[in-house]
Design a protein that fits this description.
The structure holds 2 protein chains of 2 kinds.
Chain A: H1 8-11, H2 16-26, H3 32-41, H4 44-47, H5 52-55, E1 65-67, E2 74-79, E3 82-90, H6 92-97, H7 99-115, E4 120-130, H8 136-156, E5 160-167, E6 176-186, E7 201-206, H9 216-220, H10 235-238, H11 247-262, E8 268-271, H12 276-288, E9 291-295, H13 308-313, E10 319-324, H14 329-338, E11 343-350, E12 353-354, E13 360-361, E14 363-367, E15 374-379, H15 380-384, H16 400-405, H17 417-424, H18 429-432, E16 443-445, E17 452-455, E18 467-473, H19 476-481, H20 483-500, E19 504-513, H21 520-540, E20 544-550, E21 554-555, E22 558-559, E23 563-572, E24 589-593, H22 610-614, H23 627-645, E25 652-657, H24 662-674, E26 678-680, H25 686-690, E27 697-701, H26 704-713, E28 718-724, E29 728-731, E30 735-738, H27 739-753
Parallel strand pairs in A: 4-5, 9-14, 19-20, 26-29
Antiparallel strand pairs in A: 1-2, 2-3, 3-6, 4-6, 7-10, 7-11, 8-10, 9-11, 12-13, 14-15, 16-17, 17-18, 18-23, 19-23, 21-22, 24-27, 24-28, 25-27, 26-28, 29-30
Chain B: E1 3-8, H1 15-24, E2 28-33, E3 44-47, H2 68-77, E4 82-85, H3 87-94, E5 101-103, E6 111-119, E7 135-142, E8 146-148, H4 151-159, E9 163-167, E10 178-182, E11 188-191, H5 209-216, H6 218-222
Amino acid sequence: MSSVLQPLHRALGLTDAELDDIRQVLSREPNPLELALYGVMWSEHCSYKSSRIHLRRLPSKGDHVLVGPGEGAGVIDAGDGIGVAIRIESHNHPSAIEPYQGAATGVGGILRDVFSMGARPLAVMDPLFFGALDDARNRWLVEGVVSGISGYGNSVGVPTIGGELTFDECYSANPLVNVLAVGALPTDRLALGVASGVGNYAVLLGSSTGRDGIGGVSVLASAGFAGDDGAASLDDAKRPSVQVGDPYEEKRLIEACLELLDHGFVVGIQDLGGAGLVCATSETAAKGGVGMDVDVSAVHQRELAMQPFEIMTSESQERMLAIITPENLKSVTDVCEKWEVRASVVGHVVSPTTLPDGTSVGMLRIRNGFDGEVLAEVPASSLAHDAPLYDRPRQRPSDLDAVRADDPTNDEPVGDAATDLLGLLLDPVWVYRQYDSQLFLNTVVGPGRDAALLRLAGPGLPESKRGIAISTDSNPRWCALDPKDGAALTVAESVANLACVGATAKAVVNCLNFGNPEHPEVMWQLSETVDGMVMGCNALGLPVIGGNVSLYNESGGRDIDPTPVIGLLGVIDSLVAPPPGWDWNDGDAVVLVGHREAAGATPFPLAGSRWATRRGRRGGHLAGFDATRLVSTFNFVTTEVALICGGASSDVSAVHDVSGGGLAAALAEMAAVTQRGVNVSQLEGHAELFAEFPGRFVVATSNAEAFVARALGAGVPVTILGTVGGTTVHLGGLVSINVAEIASRRGAALEEALALN
Amino acid sequence: MARIGVVVFPGSNCEYDAARAVEELGASAEFIFHSSTSLGDVDGVILPGGFAHGDYLRPGALARFSPVMDAVAAFAAEGGPVLGICNGFQVLTEAGLLPGALQKNRGLTFLCQPTTLVVSSTHSVLTRAAQVGARLVVPINHFSGAYTCDDTTYASLVDHGQIVLRYQDNPNGSRDDIAGVANEAGNVVGLMPHPERAMSTLLGSADGRVLLEGFVSAREIVH
């Protein structure tokens, strides 16, 4: 035996202990093909082996939850016979190496998750995190990722209705590209990724299988970038693990699959994503409690001389696996021919095997020809469900107390508030005008506002006057200081965004982006974040119906700040008029709704604020999470806006959540989009301008007396801040800036930073 | 009730929106798959937006060879109302049913944003119900929307009133701010903006209605 060669199992990303586990499952030595199957299925990306032990603490139940975590997407009952499917994913490492294709295939993959449930994909959102734009490589990443999302999303015919854009040096070598998708289905079209019916066929639909993306989940997604410059030095070595997308293939695949589901030709259906064919066949068989024979020679291939392990683990894009009865084969191939989609029978559903001890287990058998040689034979459930579960060591960072003690709230001197405000404003329109945000005629509120609001309508759906709202939120600045409270406050911030468009929050999906789980501080952050999410979701009555964990976001040994992204789905019962938005009118009273001061010891905490971060100040104590006051404020604002959306007249002309950049940024944004100034007299200094904590809204009203009476009647405190009018934003003697200057600085900030003008 | 055919190429994506818009105006819509060689009995045809055949090679370059395009050309030659929206406009220029071509936007990025259109001529099945000089807010959604043509063609377009819609603020570098053109007879029209996306103030604008209302009822006029 050669001593210089790495053992095969380690080259495939398996540890020595995991190899022993496999030997125990099989009661023999695995062959190389079998090792390759375990290598991808037991990868961190596929098995969640470091995070599952924590994720199971999350609440996932609710009367309206039709499908919870574990399927392609979570599904809620939105009423009127319509289910809404939602899913969030990360495509961080592929995008770090090849930004256009990484981001594009992220969109493609999540759409397949959604239409595998029988839902027509109706919207995409993209939370993006990059390093500072004074670095040329970061500018290249931004342009590549945005054009990848635009190129794929627009062409595949699903509108991109929002997202987030965050810049922080911690993402410089390891950008985050998350993607959320929402779809809708008549509830009776709900499909699951389950194989059943011995004798049924597994049909591979869509693109041919090539060598692209082999090891994507293990080599690429489940390891950090070693070099100090992050992905840059590893481009060449890891680029072959990045998949290449074809939105035209995906568009035809969507239409073909939805037509198959509409006709009832499909028993079960699952997408091929990470870990490719081995994942789809083992998961569908394991869920159905059946075995499956897979013929690698039946898989349509785009390259010559592909090895069985390559065929089984390839992550070639735009492929689905449908389980059908033999009688429907002709009908299925007819539909596929119409849409020019390839269809090949690659698997047979077979009976479970009875073991010597009397138990029965569904075996995944990989064969060369259905009657040919058996190349691999392993229990399907051992691949899909029996990956090891790790409770990795956790350790509170030793410097955390010192970091928290270094609070920027009382820093002196405070500097010029007007300059600070202008530096915080950034309109992401350069990004979102590259996205089709309007397809399907549903977009009532599109990108660039508090939350997106859509009519609940689409091809093949029952008539409804309801709407759905979606937001994505994260705050790595908060979570770096206190992952538990930071995560709870982030959930609250999401609900606040939905309140602005009148929607009641119904379900959460999360994408947990963290560093290396082998670092105990990272596992502590992850565990604390889950606890915070449990606290936030329980307090606000929200189930978590799906999620994704992206670990190993590190480079050169430096982990990213903990970045849990919350995707929140809400419903509004009657949507016949648009919500007020930010369009205040001259003469309106400007009212701060909600508790003016934060819960906790500091009334206006600047810890974790964008104001402080911009000054290089990253310490301090966050606001506390006070569920009672948050719930009453959110309910009041939601009710006020929902009445307007339902067609009622109201004195409320504008509503905006106070979030990143604080009260000053919220007021400046409203002034910028309306070209109308505001005069606010009473402020408690710069800290009140820039403090960030959820539970506050800026509302403009034409009848302050009536509005205040309603708020107080609902037990919600309000503060009259000032009046809309003029061409200047005056904030308590601290800020006085012309509206035109605010609008032009805000509008140009991103393109200037990208050096595009 | 007018019957409007909506052509569906593989890769089309605005076919449902176009159908919903014409149905809202009291017409019926039926999808005509690109492999069909006949339009059936329709009063007008819409080539909707999207990415027909993936826009591979160049937008519209492959779609012009789809079997249905012979039927569209024959229908147009008889004076039937034909409307190409966005990708449909690109297909009509590639098929030679409308003059000129659509190039990549100045700035070389995709643009999805509201635009203000100015009605320049009512001599078309699309603008016949509007007023010259009327300003209509209708969104654009394209990468290749910069209209271009040679000087002879341009002079002819002007002479025959074939420039039907112009942008108030040119977003994409189109020659002479052109947003939509018709053939000389006025029964074939193409435009880059999406009137079907401007059917309701709930979605931001209802200014597309006057255009599509004119189109769905155009057959009576042609006859």
